[in-house]
């Protein structure tokens, strides 16, 4: 029993620290976990770590958070799964909750406005850099490139994000398994689902983020596309500026970008709203990891699962591009913000600057402007 308690304590300490200090997005989170779990502590071999990382790409949810949950499951069973995941999420959620409280309490103060004025435009190249990096992996063939183009055009035409994602996944699946010489099914999209008209409340808020956490594949940045379409345009729960502020807060805090839900929940319904949104978006990840972990070693051998994921990934990249165009129009409003966006792009491309430093720099320039 003491050995188990020691494992639980060690998991909690490690992932509380990682959740408190891991800036830079999923890639940085994963690199930090590899250094701690494989190189320093020898809890997993490199191959085991890679298998767990691959498994996170086949289930919905934030990849780095689910990797933490997988590591906890491997190290200490179901209790370890709960401890590692909660410890990684909790610091970021608490930090975001504190910032949301200040944001609501202060209102639109000149200082706050200036800081966010500088942060918002540098968020754009950060997202674009991530899209480029993901796109190099996602666009494996010319047909996947064409499928991504179709997905982006359909989304611009008003087709919902979930329909586009899963339609692209099934299209790629049919493409992979079709007999040679048959027609290529470029469009395999179900009719777009009607947006929910539920009034704002704790249960609708929880159920909305539970749905998002249950179906959202790919990078956490894709979350913004869903929020734009659903909470800003369809339901009217958020304004465009509030969404941009939520994205900015997600960028300046450590841990998973999905804690953007914590910020949104608080500005909509206070502390209980933050708890409902955070629980809703992260609970599916725990379930999916618990269900898939025993089968991780077999996932790489399932052809249809890989094909489905290829289609979903390339559609995700297309949706992220559409989303970036939409928020960029709201963030880049003058010569200063345009300069910040271009300077941020140059800093990322030339110096490979950590995104956290880029956001801090944007905040300082915005404050001083």
Q: Topology, please?
A:
Layout: H1 2-21, H2 26-40, H3 46-56, H4 63-106, H5 110-138, H6 142-156, H7 161-177, H8 202-215, H9 222-234, H10 240-252, H11 260-292, H12 296-299, H13 303-331, H14 335-351, H15 355-368
Helix pairs in contact: 1-4, 2-4, 3-4, 4-11, 5-10, 5-13, 5-14, 5-15, 6-7, 6-13, 7-13, 8-11, 9-13, 10-11
Q: What does it look like?
A:
- With 369 residues, this protein is an all-alpha fold.
- The chain has one domain (108-368).
- It is built from 15 helices and no strands.
- Helix 2 (26-40) crosses helix 4 and helix 5 crosses helix 10 (240-252).
- The N and C termini lie far apart (58 Å).
- Mean pLDDT is 80; it is low at 179-196.
Strand content: under 5%
In one word, what is the shape? Answer: globular
- Percent of residues in helices comes to over 70%
Q: Specify the biggest β-sheet.
A: none
The N- and C-terminal alpha carbons lie at a distance of 58 Å
Low-pLDDT residue intervals, each spanning 5 or more residues: 179-196
**Overall radius of gyration:** 20 Å
- What average pLDDT do the residues reach? 80
* Helix-strand string: HHHHHHHHHHHHHHH
Secondary structure class reads mainly alpha
Q: Number of helical runs? A: 15
Number of domains: 1
DSSP E strands, number: 0
